[in-house]
Amino acid sequence: MRRLALLLFALPLAHAAPLDFAGTWGVKLDPADAGVTNTRPADFAHLARKVEYTGAAWYQREVVIPADWRGKRAELLLERCHWTTHAWLDERDLGEQVSLCTPHLYDLGTVRPGRHRLTLCVDNRMHVDVGGWAHSVTEETQTNWNGVIGRMELRATDTVWIERVQVYPDPASHRLRVRLLVGNATRGPQRGSVAFACGRVSRGVTFIAGGERAIVEADLELPADTPAWDEFHPELLTLTADLSAGTWRDRAEVTFGLRKLEAVGRRLELNGRTIFLRGTLECCVFPRTG
Questions:
Q1: 83 preceded by a cis bond (ω within 30 of 0)
Q2: Per-residue b/e over 196-223, b at no fewer than 16 CB within 10 Å?
């Protein structure tokens, strides 16, 4: 019998209200990077655009860092990017991110309040060979679009913060293993504590962040009557983590279900019950054409 680990994780809540900068950007295609030669004429093999563009596109806009962010750590979050992003704040190179399924996160460090120029280069070329009929990166169904269509935010935290929280639930024992990653940008060791809470259960754990990262782990035992999760009764639980280190504070929340998925021979079991996974694939369902 094989067990499939179920991992639930959350990014921390921003310490201050995030700046939403979705909206109007300046944009320019990149002809020096063969952008024009990567276009192609109409292809009527499937429902798609008449002209396809594959290559780099540059986006730029002005952002204003609030005065109350002075001394805080800033982070750029770009959600649902297609495919590789490269970011700059003014003339400072922030690096590159590559992912089709998770947010692109850029650590800006401490940023002077006031006006800044944010530049973003998005490249939708094939960076990993995923095949010629991959719907997310070819003209089949979704088209190989370029840009960012999810959240676009600048977020601020204290310089000791919660970078990530992971929850590993075990419904048989009604226990949770929690793993939290603390970030430390103070350039010195920091002592602190994290208070975990889930329903009526709570536990505090101390830590020392001697470098840029520290791992905090804790086990929480839930009441025996805590309901398990399944598709017909999707009982959800919320775990909170409150960090305190000197004058620095941060908070994160994770929503999860008490469940375990296992492979038993050729069957899948959810919390000991055989299940059948099913789904729908609605390729080429276009509102105007059907």
A1: yes
A2: bebeeeeeebebebeeeebebebebebe
Facing residues of 262 across strands? 3, 269
Q: Across the chain, what does the average pLDDT equal?
A: 85
Q: 16-74: per-residue pLDDT in tens?
A: 678 887 778 888 777 566 444 455 555 566 666 677 788 899 999 999 999 999 999 99
Helix residue spans in the chain (DSSP H):
none
Q: Please report, as a single letter, which amino acid is at residue 27.
A: V
Which of helix, strand or coil describes residue 67?
A: helix
C-alpha distances in Å from residue 21, one per residue of 24, 150, 153, 249? 8, 11, 6, 25
**Other CB atoms within 10 Å distance of the CB of residue 163:** 20
242 and 198 in contact (C-beta within 8 Å)? no
Q: Are 243 and 194 in contact (CB under 8 A)?
A: yes
CB atoms within 10 A of CB 194: 24
Judging by beta carbons within 10 Å of its beta carbon (0-12, 13-18, 19+), is residue 151 exposed, middle or buried?
Answer: middle
